[in-house]
Every structure is written in C-alpha cells, then in structure tokens.
Amino acid sequence: xxxxxxxxxxxxxxxxxxxxxxxxxxxxxxxxxxxxxxxxxxxxxxxxxxxxxxxxxxxxxxxxxxxxxxxxxxxxxxxxxxxxxxxxxxxxxxxxxxxxxxxxxxxxxxxxxxxxxxxxxxxxxxxxxxxxxxxxxxxxxxxxxxxxxxxxxxxxxxxxxxxxxxxxxxxxxxxxxxxxxxxxxxxxxxxxxxxxxxxxxxxxxxxxxxxxxxxxxxxxxxxxxxxxxxxxxxxxxxxxxxxxxxxxxxxxxxxxxxxxxxxxxxxxxxxxxxxxxxxxxxxxx
Length: 285
What we know:
Elements: H1 27-43, H2 55-58, H3 66-71, H4 78-88, H5 98-125, H6 134-142, E1 183-187, H7 190-193, E2 199-205, E3 217-220, E4 223-230, E5 232-237, E6 241-246, E7 250-252, E8 259-264, E9 269-275, E10 280-283
Antiparallel strand pairs: 1-2, 2-9, 3-10, 4-7, 4-9, 5-6, 5-8
C-alpha cells in the first residue's frame, strides 16, 4: 500500500514493488528448463569477445577507396577525345593545293631557260681579248718565237738508243785526223754509244801556234763545252774579249759565237764535249 503523501517528493526508487507470486516448483518443470538451457548452450555458437571500450575509437578510420575509383572515370573519355581529334584533323586534300600553281612555275622555268639560252648565245658571239699578265709577258720574252699561222708543229725529236761504253787511257789513241790539223784527238767512243747524239774527245795541241791556228771561226752546235786538263790556252770571244784558260778552267761556247785561238802551251790538253756528234764549222772575218 502506498504511503500517505507528504510535502516532500519521494525519489523514483521509493515506488512500490510488485507483489511476489510464489509458485510451487515441480520436478518436471525444473528439469525442462535445465535441458532447454543446456540445448541452447550447445546450439549457441561461440561468441567472440566484445571489443573493449575505447578500442573502436583508437582503430583507424577506413580509407575511402570509392573516390579514387570515381577519379579514374575520365580515362574512359580518352577514346572520345582521340576520335574527336581524328575528326578535327585536316583532310589531305590541302596537300594537293600546290598542283594549282604548277602551270605558273612551268611558265617561269620556261622563261628563265629562254633568257639563259639568249645570254649564252650573246656570250659566244662576243670575242674576248685575253690580257696577258706580267708573268705571261715575261714568259713570252724567254720562250721561243711564235710560229707563223698555218705552220705545222714540228715533231719532237726522239733520241736514239744508247749503249754502255768505257775508254781507258792509251797514248796510241791520239790521232791527227780530227777537225784541226794542229791538234791530235782521242775519241772516247761517245758518238758511237749514243748513236751520234753526242761527241766527246780529248785534244792535245801541237806547238807552235801559227797564223793558221789563229783563224776566226764559228761552230753550229746544240752544245759545246770545253774543260782544260793541263797547260793553258788563250782565246778571244766576240763580245767577251780575250780569256786565259788554265788547268781546271771550264767554259761553254754558245752556238754561232765568233772566237779565235790566240795561243797555247806546249802541254795544253783539253776535254771537248759537243752535241750533236756531227756539226758545222765555218771561218769568218
């Protein structure tokens, strides 16, 4: 029964408890609940231990993988862009545009060719005078004189075959059958070995030097070289005056130069080389 209310409020725990009903427990009733409880315990699966308090708060939050997958979605649009790019690409018809200008280029090339042909023809018609350089002028003065127009060019001379020869000293080889009657000649065999290309001999002058020896004369030769082996001799050359030639002296007599043998020693001996082997000698005044 509830107590009489007073001026003070009673707490919630002060409410009246429900009436207790006492039932008699039978033996069968007590056994069945135990079996049922045992069956429930056998059938109930093992429960995992509940997480401790605060464990859920400490666990890291799961990563949001969904947004990353959604971000990769634009890749699917790439083929669309490529197709659009291909569609926007200019057609190859524009490359055929230069063909329209081909006739103009052909006309220009034809004009250029005709102008070039006319210029070439004009160059051929103009006679050019070559001005010789100073070096060419100097070369002309040294070179041989020009041949007259229409003259045939002379064929180059071919030298005859040569053979080996040797000549040793033998006093019996000096003979008085040479050009000068006042000298003895020793032929060195060069004329025969060169097929007449060159002549070489040693000359011994026979004393005394007479007026017949002093006759003025010239030789028509390609080359005349004289070397004094022993003694001495005095000569006079046109334009060069008197020359004293002693042992070891060598001189060259140009073709056609006038000269005179004035005197020589009793033992005068010279080596004379002349090209060609056959040459002309003329007396002059």
